[in-house]
Amino acid sequence: MPDSISPFMPSDSLADPARPGHLLLNQEGTVQSLDARAAALLGLGGGDAGGAIAALLRRAGAVSTGGAWRLQQAITGGLAGTQAEPVQLGGMRVEFTALPPAHLLLSLVPDGATDTLTGLPGRGQLMARLAELLASGSSAALLLLRMNRLDSVGDTLGQAAMETVLRHAAGRLQGALRVGDIAARLPGRGFAVLLQGAGPSAATALAGRLLELMARPFDVGGAVTHLNASIGLAYAPEDGTAAESLLRRVAMAGHAANPGSWRAYEREMEASAEARLVLEAELRRAVPLGQFELHYQPQQTLETGALTGFEALLRWRHPDVGLVPPGEFIPLAEETGLILPIGEWVIHQACRASAAWPGDGLTVAVNVSPRQVEEQKLAEIVSAALRASGLPASRLEIEVTETALLGGTDSVEATLAALRRLGVQISLDDFGTGYSSLTQLSRFPFDRIKIDRSFVSDHPRSKAILRAVAGMGRAMGMRTTAEGVETAEQLRRIRAHGCTEAQGYLLGRPVPEREVPALIREWQARAPQVLACETF
Questions:
Q1: CATH architecture of 293-525
Q2: Which CATH entry fits the domain spanning 123-276: 1.10.10.10, 3.30.1330.10, 1.10.357.10, 3.30.70.270?
């Protein structure tokens, strides 16, 4: 480890995957300094990198209240090139070639028996009691509960609001336990429950009850926010006879659980967890190494058949395996927070590319994740991308999903209002697949509704829903785009039901950026084809 950390580093070192990054944390968990390599590995680029890392570490529970810092063997033994050592006056100097995932950052914790925020036993008490039970040969069930989207509460309502939610969550947790059960607060957004003598029946019943409790609204100083939880389960002695290994396995199960659900540990998760760590490390390097690219899928108006614009779709071209399907890396990027730097790159790249397209008025639609919508800097990022590219604001369309609108309503409204003031278009993506769709349409200022592909099928109910949504769009002055159109019959049907635009493989598959200008000229050269209207 070097004795000092320079905030500057030659630019050629950023491209060297073997070059480590360095962070210096003080006793409160604030980043005192970092070098450019650390910022590159984190995908932060310029700006207040120190503040961004400090927020990341706070969300992972890496905040000391005076105790000694320690980096557990789980990190130094599990990720090559990661080292840490304490410094004088408290704090930690960290060197890494790949930042440990957020759930491994949980091992940066202060010593202490009781969590001062919730009053629950801390990790130390939990592990001591678990070790006693395992040594005695007793059976037990261990549950690990992780609050989802809690970091968005801190980002939008502040650190105090996040702490209030954690205290309320701890109260709900304690109220659901039996006499003799042990609840503990883990660093970050997690809780653990130890059930002595319990088997799968009792553990899964409690897991279901806790999921229901955590899905109830949280009132934070008059602001109502909706969260949910994911729960992992593991059993002793079946899944482990050592405290650390059992905790590690229940954590694997928790990470495998979808939001609002629970999963029990399975042996296959060991290989999945290892593969996930490798994928995350590679994903962190993808932005600074330029491995992402955008493909563009055409959108057509149903009135004249003319091309109206494109949707930008993210692709990851891995140097070894080629194109990685979005379904494999987007959820991981969401969970780790990498979606924020990736999403910022997408916005800038889509604006830059579309500004050079031939023709007038073609729009580019960019999907933004729930975390980006909750991030209060989204409007600033969009504004900067428009200025840098010269793209008129009216040609940029920001697509949000219903999921992004469920939590932190006030902050989401503020973000959408700021985007509206910039002059960009706003659309509701995958309409009908989330919750409270009618509420969202009346509350937020959308220019377009994008109807999910599942309603384009020839099922009688799908036809009725398609007709109803198109009618609502007309009544509310919103354009309606049907996604996933693959046959001429589907195209005729959606036009007959009143949709205004269409997108799908029938009209054009996504193409790389370099092929877009030729595709535009091809559309401009052919006469628009208006399909005859049929009644279904």
A1: Alpha-Beta Barrel (3.20)
A2: 3.30.70.270
SS3 string, 243-271, reads HHHHHHHHHHHHHHCCCCCEEECCCHHHH
CA–CA separation, 210 vs 147, rounded Å? 11
Within 8 A by CB and 6+ apart from 267, the residues are none
- Is the separation of the CB atoms in 396 and 425 below 8 Å? yes
HSE-CB for 367 with a 13 A CA cutoff:
21
- Give Cβ neighbours of residue 399 (< 8 Å, ≥ 6 apart): 311, 365, 366, 367, 368, 427, 428, 429, 450
Query: Do 213 and 176 contact (CB within 8 A), yes or no?
Result: yes
CA torsion through residues 52, 58, 61, 67, sign: positive
- Amino acid in position 66: G
Among left, alpha and beta (phi > 0; psi -120 to 50; other), residue 309 is left
Q: At what angle do helices 200-214 and 159-175 cross, to 10 degrees?
A: 140
Q: How many CB atoms lie within 10 A of CB 131?
A: 14
Per-residue confidence of the chain (536 residues) as pLDDT tens digits?
333 333 323 333 344 555 677 766 554 444 556 666 666 655 444 444 444 444 444 443 333 332 223 333 223 333 334 565 655 444 566 666 654 443 334 333 333 457 778 888 888 888 888 888 898 888 999 999 999 888 777 767 777 888 889 999 999 998 898 888 889 998 767 899 999 888 899 999 999 999 999 999 998 888 888 889 999 999 999 988 888 889 888 988 988 888 899 999 988 887 776 677 778 888 888 888 889 999 999 999 998 889 999 999 999 998 888 888 888 889 888 877 889 999 999 999 999 999 999 877 899 999 998 888 876 589 999 999 999 999 999 999 999 987 777 655 567 888 888 999 999 999 988 776 555 456 667 777 789 988 888 777 766 677 777 888 888 888 888 898 988 898 898 898 888 888 999 999 999 999 999 999 999 999 888 755 544 333 33
**Amino acid, res. 533:** C
In the DSSP assignment, the letter for residue 69 is P
Strands 396-401 and 363-367 come out as parallel
Tell me whether strands 218-220 and 182-186 are parallel, antiparallel or unpaired.
Answer: unpaired
Amino acid at 51: G
Task: Return the H-helix or E-strand segment holding 236.
Answer: strand 228-236
CA distances from 131 to 138, 196, 244, 433 (A): 10, 12, 9, 45
How far apart CA 12 and CA 415 sit, in angstroms, is: 37
